[in-house]
Amino acid sequence: RADGPGPRATLLAGAGAFGRDAAAYPHPWPPPFTTIAWRLSHLSEMLALRADHTAGSRRLTRDDHPVPGDRDAAVAAFRAGAAAWRKALLGVDDTALDTVGLCTYPHGSDAEEPFIDIVWWVNQEVLHHGAEIALIRDLYRERGVRGH
Question: Where is the DinB-like domain (predicted)?
Answer without folding.
Answer: 25-133
